[in-house]
Amino acid sequence: MPIAVLGELLYGAMNSERLAENEQAVLAFWSECIPVYSDEAVARRYAVTRLKLKQQGRPIPENDLWIAAACMEVDATLVSRDDHFSGIDGLDVVKWR
Hints:
By secondary structure, the chain is mainly alpha-helical. The protein has two domains: 1-35; 40-95, 5'-nuclease (Rossmann fold, 3-Layer(aba) Sandwich), CATH 3.40.50. It is built from four helices and two strands; from the N terminus they run H-H-H-H-E-E. A two-stranded parallel ribbon has the order 1-2. Helix 1 (3-14) packs antiparallel against helix 2 and helix 3 (40-55) packs across helix 4 (62-73). It starts with a helix and ends with a strand.
């Protein structure tokens, strides 16, 4: 799981009414995942992807760009409810319902 996803999940837990319970659930889930950290290869993929989307007039949120770049770099499938991921060439996306 890209480290940016952990940050977003922790933010959601901290922004909830059940902070302790939700944070514990996030950390339990995280402990079962293989972390994907951003490095030079992920940064390059981020830059290329961001430029392509800008040229196409289809920018997406910054964190989502980092998440997509990390997933593409390790050939991971991204599971998301966000439709904008489907427009990224080379990203394997599964729609989470």
